[in-house]
Amino acid sequence: MLVLSVTLVIFLLVASLLLYVLIRYRQRPSDSEREPAQVYGSNQIELSWTVIPILIVVMLFLTTTRVILDTEAAPKPSSALDVTVVGHQFWWEYRYPKLGVVTANELHVPISDPAKPTPTYLSLSSADTDHSFWVPRLAGKTDLIPNRLNTMWIDPQKPGLYLGQCAQYCGTQHALMLLRVYAQSPEDFAAWIKQQQRPAEQNLSGNSAAAEGQTVFMHSACINCHTIAGTVASGRYGPDLTHVASRDTIASGPVKNTPENLRQWIADPNSMKPGVLMPSMHLNDHDLDVITAYLTTLH
Amino acid sequence: MANAIPVLEAIDQTLETKRRPPLDVVYEWVSTVDHKKIGLMYIAYALLFLLIGGFEAVLIRIQLAVPNNHFVSPQVFNRLFTMHGTTMVFFMGMPILFGFGNYLVPLMIGARDMAFPRLNAFSFWISAFGGLLLYFSYLGGDGLYGMGSAPDVGWFAYAPLTARIFSPGHSTDYWTLSLLLTGIGTTGTALNIMTTTICMRCKGMKLTRMPLFVWLMVVTSFLVFVAVSPLTAAQIMLTLDRYLGAHFFDTQAGGSAVLWMHFFWIFGHPEVYILVLPVFGFVSEIIPVFSRKAIFGYPAMVAASVAIGFISLSVWAHHMFTVGMGPAGNTFFVFSTMVISVPTGIKIFNWLGTLWGGKIIFKVPMMFCIAFLFQFLVAGLTGIMLSAAPFDWQLAGSYFLIAHFHYVLVGAIVTGLFGAFYYWYPKVTGRMMSETLGKWHFWLFIIGFHLTFDFMHLTGTLGMPRRIYTYEAGRGWEGLNLIIGIGALFQTVGTLIFVYNLVRSYYHGEIAGHDPWDAWTLEWATPSPPPAYNFAVEPTVRSRRPLWDLKHPEDQDENYE
Questions:
Q1: C-alpha B149: how far from its chain's center?
Q2: Which of A107-111, B17-21, B484-488 has the least mean pLDDT?
Q3: pLDDT for B143
Q4: Staple partner for B317: which of A92, A250, B165, B333, CB 3.0–4.6 Å?
Q5: How much is the average pLDDT of B137-155?
Q6: What is the mean pLDDT of residues A266-271?
Q7: Nearest C-alpha in B relative to A55
Q8: Does A15 fall in a domain?
Q9: Residue A169 and residue A88 share a domain
């Protein structure tokens, strides 16, 4: 805020001086041919407009340093939640190491009470190119850089959905690598964690399409890229699908998670997010139907 | 205007132009080593790329005018913003400014040509080839598997996106090689400017009597020497990574993405000062003439320019505040960046001091310089905002940042350049540009500029990142992006009027004579256009404004300096 006020004041001051000068000293038709008085400089004036800006800079620098330290050197409370974020082209992997949860694209965190803060500390890294985690209403951005570990923290105090997106150009679909952060009350968050800790529902006897879909899935190349906990699918290249049906969106944000959209995504991801790295699996209609039926059971 | 000096009037009258066979003319230009012709070739080449780069920008703005647009595919969009940035910085900005420098520096110091005329020609032709090579990528970038076309890695080409696995085909290599070549040309020209200025000033022209434009070109050349090498080195390292199995930036094998950023920005930040300092020079020449007063505080202006040059070498990692350098690193670069605002502010105050008490004439060159002053002020202030790292953590990589740097690049640099065109066109061609068309150009361009870049600050503060080919509705960005697009159209029309003015005035402009603006530096003592040898007799000067001394024998500058 201080930076904004100082720059605003400087702008108003200098711009109005400029405007004044342009009006007051404009050439008028009645002016004689004589040139105005030639003034080559003024030591006092020039000294003052050197010293005053230096003082302003020192003040801005000191206040900025304090904010930097408050942010980057803040002591980490023991009650902080740890989340590991891995950026991929073009989706987000989230791991909660102490809670045994792996998910993708939709980050759930507990809200924090200023009296007893429970911020979320994010460890940021990347599986491929540079990315950047930017949810404006929660924090400034920090980059996800391969072969490097960065850390940032967020401390939401109001529950709700916070939107953002990748803020470092990472390739063709950088634009649709969206961020969705769900800040929840401690109870809601605990319930979500419990749900996410469960492996995938194995008993699909009540749903023949889903059962068939599971069989097709487990015999397709899908399992090489995706993980579904409790099954043979253990690929790490694409998002974890164990609880895919519990998410509001797919494709890292731009597509609503409905059975129709899910089916189309699997049929041809490029039709919804051109340039995405998931190939079309060239499945026939029947396989698409049953796989979709299976995935929609994965709450 | 003032009375013509009799000797020069006589020279004007003896010069004649005769029609010559076209092939002769072509050969003359292709083989010339005359700094004036080379300067003009740089400028013409840059104008072509201004139009191409501008066209790329218009396509970008059309795609972003409405949410979820399908005007161009994401792949095409990513090439468009990469080519727009690369073109405007390297094939518009650099050549046009070095073109003006080439043309004006020898004239302003009373020299006959540059110190190394053949190096001068070589520098132009290799830079020109670089630009053509970059655009050839649209045809040749395919590589083995039909991938790639023009480069699409962004103008600063962050690793590891530029690694072979993430950028197959040859598009990245076109980016690398074309810039490498143009860097050679830039270095050659900088060498020429430095040597010419140090060794070839006319009698009486001490360093402290050189026009400010020449000083600024010297500082610019110094920056070129220091800054271009890191870029060239990084590009060689990148090519080694891509083709010879090196892993400098290959993070999959333990290399460092941050290393590329340091190399690039050690070049990249001085680069933007290389782009802006010559424009400070233009403005420092034009504002005094149209205020009818000497520049206020010449020694401070020189000191500030040199200070800006040195300090600009120490600020580069303010482009990397979000990379996680830690509080110590971040704090240092906050400090160095804030410090550079002091000499920059001094320059603005000195320009203000020049206007104060003057007799301000609102002809088109001056109008552009006044727009420069307001716009550069804003650009500098948003720069100070961004220099506060916590502020930058929110707004780097967003449209606020794009608005800031376009305020500098378009609002200050291009605006100042337009002023320079209208001011020196009469010297180059012997004819005045049309004031009426100039005013249309000015107003359309300035209105368009503000529609686009003022509102762009808002999209950034509302969370819109850069380099996205589309966006969802409902984030509050739609209306703003539409206004931004409309501004782009205004700027396009203004620029086209400018180009028309350039061409039309060549044939129909009012004859200018040697000194249409009643100015004071040596270039105005030659005929318009100057003969190949510039000065029949080497001038002798006794102050910073030799023509003022001639016109005001009762009140010469040397009594006050």
A1: 27
A2: B17-21
A3: 56
A4: B333
A5: 76
A6: 96
A7: B342
A8: no
A9: yes
Please provide residue B200's backbone torsions phi and psi, each rounded to the nearest 5 degrees: -120, 25
**Of the listed ranges A69-73, B262-266, B337-341, B493-497, the one predicted with least confidence:** A69-73
Listed by number, the residues of chain A in 90-119 with a beta carbon closer than 8 Å to a beta carbon of chain B are none
- The answer to whether the CB atoms of A38 and B154 lie below 8 A apart is no
CB contact under 8 A, B74 and A73: no
Whole-model pTM? 0.94
> At B299, is the secondary structure helix, strand, or coil?
helix
In-domain check, residue A103: yes
Structure ipTM: 0.94
Asked if B411 reaches chain A (Cβ–Cβ under 8 Å), the answer is no
Contacts of B341 in chain A (CB under 8 A): 53, 57
Of A185, A218, A238, at which residue does a domain stop?
Answer: A185
How many whole angstroms separate alpha carbon A238 and alpha carbon B469? 23
CA B173 centroid distance within chain:
25
Q: Report, as an integer, the average pLDDT of A116-144.
A: 96
For residue B462, give every residue at least 6 positions away whose Cβ sits within 8 Å of its Cβ, in sequence order, or none.
Answer: B475, B476, B477, B480
pLDDT at position B142 is 64
Q: Please report the residues numbered 110 through 169 in chain B whose beta carbons come closer than 8 angstroms to any beta carbon of chain A.
A: 152-154, 158, 160-161, 166
Q: Which domain holds residue A259?
A: 208-295
pLDDT per residue as tens digits for the range B222-232: 999 999 999 99
Domain count, chain A: 3
Q: Does A285 touch chain B (CB under 8 A)?
A: no
Reported as half-sphere exposure (CB side, CA atoms, 13 A), residue A167 has a value of 30
Cβ neighbours of B328 in A, within 8 Å: none
Q: Are residues A218 and A271 in the same domain?
A: yes
What are the backbone angles phi and psi of residue A203, rounded to the nearest 5°? -85, 100
Q: Is residue A32 part of a domain?
A: no
* Listed residue (B483, B418, B424, B485) closest to B445, CA to CA: B418
pLDDT reading at A29 higher than 80: yes
B331: closest chain A residue by CA: A65
Task: Answer whether residue A282 is part of any domain.
Answer: yes
pLDDT, one tens digit per residue, over B104-128 is 999 999 999 999 999 999 999 999 9
Residue B20 pLDDT level (bands cut at 50, 70, 90): confident
